[in-house]
């Protein structure tokens, strides 16, 4: 321990700072400290305009088991949805029967069935054509809302410039495994804290697919969601590029299931990361220096991604080589252990602040997750992200994303899949 | 519902063409080279110590050269005493004494049979790797 401290003390400060940046922690420290010190977090008004009519769209593929709780939570809302539309996207399980049963009970207004799987975007776009509310709320079939969530989301649309808003997401099965516990902490950091500060500077980049609300006329006029992978991010960036505002509502809470295993988690993140890289850089050219019509918030949102996500991820292996060459194997391990101790303290500080600010209780399980959270976020997810980015750059692997049905990919990409 | 869709706005990427874009060939090759270079560095750097490159070696030689009874007919005690003495002397000077050294002593005593016909003798198998430590000096 003493050796570690001595090594850290004798280290170039810039080297240490870059280590901390690379391992991903201070992004949230900056957010949380800003939120705590200045109290600049935006709060929704709580009560929306009384005439807001919300059409809820629930696209689902083999997600019948989650439909019941989702629909029940929608019926508990302080602002009752105008209508609920379930789209069965070619499910092979009992999803259609569950949806039809809910419709027979009067819990659902419309069930749209696709004979074969067409993809999430096509399902939502089809439902949007039949919806008649002013606002569209797209919900995953495993998402459960708090009673005031829809009302708070709808309140964000009192500003006519707002075309989309997303809610705050927590993990509902956080006690199922270590991985879900870690995801719970991660969501608190990256979504609750990270997006709160981005919302203040109007730099929200992505409306979460799990629960987002859109202004229906804008949604339909702009052609709805694209059918390719990463449709939620693409639509959010498109709205930004067209001059609309998109918002994050931290007081509107929803819970969704996270992957319970390490491999499932990596697969989910690989899909998100590949899509993010493709959409941001290859479609929207966010690495270009200047953009026509770009405003300061747009610059901030892409800088946020480039500085805190892209650069640390891609430089991680080169940095490790540099550390090994600089210190030698044994001292490099010692140095990285020292950095981990620093990160752990920063991480504990972050979490304490986040748990207090967002009124989340932390149990024994959460405390255990805290100790390995820097390892999870700074090493495990970072290595996975590096692999995803690299595979996307070299092999364009998002073109083979199973999330989009193969026939849609063939039609969209015009190549053999 | 009769809504005019304006998806092909010039300010946003084309929904099909932009999806078909990929990183340029130069970027892909350059990035792949660098990434696999880093990967190779780590494999060599951390893998080298696990590769056994500095063992005592193997000896292939006629039996009368390497087998003890053929080397000193008679006076086994003298030979044993000499070996013992050499070992002690080498202990003092810090020289390497081992199976290879013993075989080298045998070659020396065989006189003129250092490279016997039909056989080869090696001291140290394989070649030194970029990160291997220098071998102990062997004197004979």
Explain this structure.
- The complex is a heterodimer of chains A (417) and B (140).
- Chain A is α/β, with parallel strands linked by helices and 417 residues long.
- Chain A has 15 helices and 8 strands.
- Chain A has helices spanning 2-9, 13-22, 26-38, 64-75, 95-104, 120-130, 149-155, 178-200, 216-221, 231-241, 262-283, 296-327, 329-357, 364-395, 406-413, and strands at residues 54-60, 83-89, 110-114, 135-139, 143-145, 162-171, 211-215, 245-256.
- Chain A has an 8-stranded mixed beta sheet, with helices on both faces.
- Chain A is globular.
- Chain B has a domain at 59-121.
- A two-stranded antiparallel ribbon of chain B has the order 1-2.
- Chain A binds chain B through residues 129, 217, 220-223, 226-228, 238, 241-242, 282-284, 292-293, 317-318, 320-321, 324, 329, 390, 393-394, 396, 412-414, and chain B through 1, 3-7, 9, 11-13, 15-16, 18-23, 27-28, 31-32, 35, 38-39, 41-42, 45-46.
Helix and strand arrangement:
The complex is a heterodimer of chains A (417) and B (140).
Chain A: H1 2-9, H2 13-22, H3 26-38, E1 54-60, H4 64-75, E2 83-89, H5 95-104, E3 110-114, H6 120-130, E4 135-139, E5 143-145, H7 149-155, E6 162-171, H8 178-200, E7 211-215, H9 216-221, H10 231-241, E8 245-256, H11 262-283, H12 296-327, H13 329-357, H14 364-395, H15 406-413
Parallel strand pairs in A: 1-2, 1-4, 2-3, 6-8
Antiparallel strand pairs in A: 4-7, 5-8, 6-7
Chain B: H1 17-20, H2 25-47, E1 59-60, H3 63-66, H4 68-71, H5 76-93, H6 99-110, E2 120-121
Antiparallel strand pairs in B: 1-2
């Amino acid at each position: 321990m003493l050796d570690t401290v001595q090594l850290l003390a004798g280290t170039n400060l810039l080297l240490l700072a870059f280590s901390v940046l690379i391992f991903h922690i201070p992004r949230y420290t900056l957010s949380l400290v800003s939120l705590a010190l200045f109290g600049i977090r935006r709060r929704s008004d709580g009560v929306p305009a009384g005439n807001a009519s919300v059409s809820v769209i629930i696209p689902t593929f083999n997600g019948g088991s989650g439909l019941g709780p989702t629909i029940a939570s929608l019926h508990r809302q302080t602002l009752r949805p105008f209508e609920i539309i379930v789209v069965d996207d070619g499910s092979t399980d009992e999803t259609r029967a569950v949806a039809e049963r809910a419709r027979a009970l009067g819990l659902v207004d419309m069930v749209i069935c696709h004979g074969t799987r067409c993809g999430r975007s096509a399902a939502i776009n089809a439902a949007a054509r039949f919806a008649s509310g002013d606002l569209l709320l797209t919900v995953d079939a495993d998402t459960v809302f708090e009673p005031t969530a829809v009302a708070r989301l709808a309140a964000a649309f009192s500003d006519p410039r707002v075309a989309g808003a997303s809610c705050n997401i927590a993990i509902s099965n956080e006690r199922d495994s270590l991985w879900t516990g870690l995801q719970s902490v991660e969501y608190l950091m990256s979504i609750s804290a990270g997006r709160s500060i981005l919302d203040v500077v109007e730099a929200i980049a992505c409306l979460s697919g799990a629960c987002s609300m859109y202004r229906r006329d804008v949604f339909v006029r702009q052609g709805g969601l694209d059918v390719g992978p990463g449709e939620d991010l693409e639509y959010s960036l498109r709205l930004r590029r067209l001059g609309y505002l998109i918002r994050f509502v931290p007081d509107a809470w929803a819970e969704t299931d996270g992957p319970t295993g390490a491999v499932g988690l990596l697969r989910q993140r690989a899909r998100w990361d590949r899509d993010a890289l493709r959409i941001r850089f290859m479609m929207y050219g966010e690495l270009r220096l200047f953009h026509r019509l770009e405003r300061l918030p747009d610059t901030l949102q892409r800088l946020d991604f480039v500085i805190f996500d892209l650069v640390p991820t891609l430089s991680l292996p080169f940095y490790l080589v540099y550390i090994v060459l600089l210190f030698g194997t044994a001292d490099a391990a010692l140095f990285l252990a020292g950095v981990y101790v620093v990160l752990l303290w920063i991480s504990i500080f972050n979490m304490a602040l986040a748990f207090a600010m967002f009124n989340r209780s932390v149990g024994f399980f959460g405390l255990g997750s805290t100790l390995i959270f820097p390892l999870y976020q700074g090493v495990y997810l970072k290595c996975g992200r590096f692999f995803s980015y690299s595979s996307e750059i070299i092999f364009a692997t998002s073109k083979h994303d199973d999330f989009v049905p193969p026939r849609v990919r063939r039609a969209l990409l015009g190549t053999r899949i | 519902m009769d809504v005019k869709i304006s998806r092909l706005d010039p300010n946003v990427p084309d929904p099909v063409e932009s999806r078909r874009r990929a990183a340029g060939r130069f970027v892909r090759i350059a990035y792949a080279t660098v990434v696999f270079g880093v990967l190779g560095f780590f494999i060599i750097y951390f893998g080298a110590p696990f590769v056994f490159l500095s063992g005592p070696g193997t000896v292939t030689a006629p039996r009368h050269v390497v087998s003890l009874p053929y080397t000193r007919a008679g006076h086994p005690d003298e030979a044993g005493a000499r070996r013992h003495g050499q070992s002690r002397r080498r202990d003092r000077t810090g020289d390497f004494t081992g199976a290879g050294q013993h075989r080298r002593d045998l070659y020396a005593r065989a006189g003129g049979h250092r490279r016997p016909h039909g056989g080869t003798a090696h001291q140290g198998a394989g070649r030194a790797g970029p990160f291997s430590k220098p071998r102990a000096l062997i004197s004979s």
